Amino acid sequence: MLSKIKIFRLFSHLGSSTTPYIHKGNNPLLNKLNYLSLNRFCTITRSPTTAESPELPEWLKFSRNNNPTGSDSDDDFVIPELAHWVENQKHDHGSKVEGHTLKETIDSDIDKISKLLKFRHASVDDFVHALGGCGVCVSESLVEQVLKRFSNDWIPAFGYFKWAKSQTGFRHSANSYDSMVDVLGKLKKFDLMWELVEEMHELGGYVSLATMTKVMRRLARASRWEDAIEAFRGMERFGVRKDTLAMNTLMDALVKENSVERANDVFLEFKDSIPLNSRTFNILIHGWCKARKMNNALKSMEEMKQHGFCPDAISYTSIVEAHCNEKDFRKVDSVLNEMEENGCPPNVVTYTIVMHALGKGKEISKALEVYERMKQRGCVPDAAFYSSLIYILSKAGRLKDARDVFDDMTKQGAVPDVLTYNTMISAACKHSQEEDALKLLVKMDENSCKPDLNTYSPLLKMCCRNKRMKVLSALLNHMFKNDISLEVGTYTLLVHGLCKSEKLEWACLFFEEMVSKGLVPNDSTHKLLLKELEKKSMEEAKERVEKLMSQARQQG
Known about the structure:
Largest sheet: none
Helix content: 55-70%
């Protein structure tokens, strides 16, 4: 728990108020782009043996009478204390742990493979051919890392997968097949995904519930709900049982993608042939609450009782969350009391949801009272609870209090996790505390806390806003080394941010990179980029962006 002094201070504070064309030339802007190592993200088709020297494509040349970028002192600025970290991101160092030769080999091999896969090729088979004779020994761990690193770029990922499969003496594991199935499903290449599942079936015993879970979730996420249900109906053909766990997995996938009605249809279709459990009903209760259909949620709770299952903390927490979303805290208190009376006390998740909702509603005093109530009932805060508390305090502008909570967590037995760091980084970025934000990322490295996509989003946005192009490049390289692949949301953030900062050459390059990966830019991103290019009279670039958008729509 937080110390009494820190709690007192929190309360006392309340009293106060496709492939590009290559342009050659000695242009300072081009030299700067080369220096900033954008090559990792450029779409260039050349022999991998050629020295990398990415320059702006011809269609990005600015009008002679109107150079929108010029020389900007902010581009190369780096906070002195972080200069060494930024420079380190430009090089691949391999493992820092002495004696772990296997990991060092994997680190070295992943860098070799990544350099080959960065060059754009038209087809999967072209990538297979390009990897021939690369001299890398395939291993299951290397396959997993490559698929993770290129999880939003299915062509090189699938090319590597097929190449690895052709190597003498190597056979993909079921886990590797599952990862490839997930990549194809994520990029909506469902025909290829099903072909791979059939191949797994022919190998014998490779298709599992884990495989079908990825299939059903990816289909549901693409709003192909009926296909997801049909996959469940036919899963026994692959030797996977249609049992309670499998049915719950399908229902959960449908609920997560805002289709509780279809989840209920699945429940009605199979409830007499597949045993039910409390999780089956909790999925429905959560789904109805999420859809703001409280009467249906309460009916599911009653039906749960009729089947001999007592509503538990998960059941009640869904109801609590629904009332929190409606900002009806009188009903929240009523449900919390009901939970106590029924011998089902609120758990840390329940308290976290209530505190978070009160904080978002600017009821800071009441939010902190939740902490006191929780402490009195012997409920121990976890990392998620502290992350929520940090978010509330940061949103209220109380950054020092948020930092105190962060620093005190470990003493209270709760180790900061990626969500905690993400919350701290996001708050620092929002309040323009650039140095603190980047130091937190460095601290994650030091504490072996692996960042995720949400770690980088506020940092990238901050760099775009402040025109810190050297730091932006370092962050992108850091993401790549952590096997985090850019997706549509991150590309959108970059293009929008760079347009607002008048860094149109970067915005165009990221737009093209997005399309080259088979991703479809949002209409708003497309329109914003065209608008900014029109302001700068960049007609050739406009035409190129229009062609790229047309290409993206066709392949999407």
